[in-house]
Amino acid sequence: xxxxxxxxMADVLANAAARGNLEAVRMLLDRTVDPNAVNSYGRTPIxxxxxxxxxxxxxxxxxxxxxxxxxxxxxxxPVHDAAREGFLDTLVALHRGGARLDLRxxxxxxxxxxxxxxxxxxxxxxxxxxPARNAxxxxx
Length: 140
Description:
With 140 residues, the protein is mainly alpha-helical. It is 46% helix and 0% strand. The relative contact order is 0.13.
């Protein structure tokens, strides 16, 4: 059942993020819409964002979005979604922005498990090379 959002702009921001509309998201954040505002479905912009858009992830993280908030129904984090869908650039952006890689969804799965199930070996390789609890190392 949809929740009432305290911030009427929360749905507008979430919808812009879901469409991958970087300029609209930037404009709304510039107008001080909370980057962690919850939409009618209990989800934040970084949870619903277009996963194939690493620049959008970077923008939301720079403005204070919390990458480690679990989805209310599945327990998935943005890193789970990026890993499942094979979006390595977005996963790297999330990790550099502070996202943890060692948190499990409600079915007990880590991002690396989802990447493996989906056959995204490039993502598995990235995740395997990084101790999950450590912050991302800058690329050489």
